[in-house]
Every structure is written in C-alpha cells, then in structure tokens.
Write a structure and sequence with these properties.
The protein is mainly alpha-helical and 73 residues long. The chain is built from three helices and no strands. Helices cover 48% and strands 0% of the residues.
Length: 73
C-alpha cells in the first residue's frame, strides 16, 4: 500500500485530533492485540509519527508490522 494515498491523507486530516488512547483501542479492536507490548523493543518515533502509524493500521486494517516504515523503527 502506498504511503501517499489521497484517501488516507484525507482520513489523517480528519482524524488529527483523535487521542492515541482511542487509536490504541481501535487498533486492539481491529487486530485483537494491543499496539504496544512491554516485551517488544520500544518504538522510537515522534508522537506525530506514532499517530500516523496507528492511523495507517486502523485505516487499512493491517497489523503494525506491515506499516511501510516499520522496519525503520
């Protein structure tokens, strides 16, 4: 899935004020697991990057490991 999908970009603009806690809940509901796992290595991204990552997962219904930039984290 391309990172510059116009529909996804519009979704991000509309969802810019959604708290990370709500995105975490939406991720759990769609994937059946939490986005954060205390046994995993920590995610080293800015809050804005984390929000985009979580929005991507929720929008596309994909797990965090499939995020195109996940390998860079």
């Amino acid at each position: 899935m391309p990172m510059k999908d116009a529909d996804f970009e519009a979704f991000c603009k509309e969802a810019k004020d959604i708290p990370l806690s709500d995105l975490s809940t939406a991720y759990f509901r769609s994937q059946g697991v939490g986005f954060f796992n205390i046994e995993d290595n920590s995610i080293n991204v800015t809050g804005k990057e984390l929000q985009r990552w979580m929005l991507w997962c929720v929008y596309y219904g994909r797990p965090k490991e499939e995020y195109p930039l996940a390998m860079n984290q």
